[in-house]
Amino acid sequence: MVFPHRAPSGCSPPQQGQCPAGALSFGGPDERVEGPVPSWLEAVRGSPLVEELTLNPPEGIVAGPMNEENFFEWEALIMGPEDTCFEFGVFPAVLSFPLDYPLSPPKMRFTCEMFHPNIYPDGRVCISILHAPGDDPMGYESSAERWSPVQSVEKILLSVVSMLAEPNDESGANVDASKMWRDDREQFYKIAKQIVQKSLGL
């Protein structure tokens, strides 16, 4: 997928694996899957969902498969929500889909610097909708909040936008960010502003 503009300088762009002919990559640049293509993948190639997200995306989101040979890896740009400390930021991310999707959820990782209670220091996103049934790393989620096959990529991305706007400091994905959000909001806002500026190459 080619975005309407480049990923901002200061952020590492998503790593695109080089796929040999007839192969599809998933889960990272060093993994390959060959042979029959999963039925969900055949369906998604012509899916209205892909067209909707790429041609008429929700406000503040641009997303789609990296290329026609790699539907297991999507890239996205998330715009910082209005009236929040992340406003005006443009944050690149990668969605990695497992072979048994939609039975299992994709994984999402920001590929630029982020400082947020629900984002691990390496960029991985920790929200309920990305957790499989029975997977509750922080020990506070209800089963209804977690992944189910009826969820959509659009809902994941909208949930991430909401997460940026309203951090959940019960999540220990980034302990330092959680503590600062609770105890020193002014300093948190200052760091968030720096991250926004970096995302814009300022």
Automatic annotation (TrEMBL):
Domain of life: Eukaryota
UniProt domain UBC core: residue ranges: 41-201
The family this protein is said to belong to: Belongs to the ubiquitin-conjugating enzyme family.
Enzymatic reactions: S-ubiquitinyl-[E1 ubiquitin-activating enzyme]-L-cysteine + [E2 ubiquitin-conjugating enzyme]-L-cysteine = [E1 ubiquitin-activating enzyme]-L-cysteine + S-ubiquitinyl-[E2 ubiquitin-conjugating enzyme]-L-cysteine
Record protein name field: Ubiquitin-conjugating enzyme E2 G2
One of the record's GO molecular function terms: ubiquitin conjugating enzyme activity
Keyword vocabulary terms for this entry: ATP-binding, Nucleotide-binding, Transferase, Ubl conjugation pathway
Subunit note: Interacts with AUP1 (via C-terminus); the interaction recruits UBE2G2 to lipid droplets. Interacts with ubiquitin ligases AMFR/gp78 and RNF139/TRC8; recruitment to lipid droplets by AUP1 facilitates interaction of UBE2G2 with AMFR and RNF139, leading to sterol-induced ubiquitination of 3-hydroxy-3-methylglutaryl coenzyme A reductase and its subsequent proteasomal degradation.
Gene Ontology biological process terms in this record: ERAD pathway
Associated pathway: Protein modification
SUPFAM superfamilies in the cross-refs: UBC-like
Function: Accepts ubiquitin from the E1 complex and catalyzes its covalent attachment to other proteins. In vitro catalyzes 'Lys-48'-linked polyubiquitination. Involved in endoplasmic reticulum-associated degradation (ERAD). Required for sterol-induced ubiquitination of 3-hydroxy-3-methylglutaryl coenzyme A reductase and its subsequent proteasomal degradation.
PROSITE patterns: UBC_1, UBC_2
Organism listed in the record: Sus scrofa
Enzyme Commission identifier(s): 2.3.2.23
Disordered: region residues: 1-28
Record gene name: UBE2G2
Entry annotation: catalytic residues: C126
One Pfam assignment: UQ_con
Gene3D superfamilies recorded: Ubiquitin Conjugating Enzyme
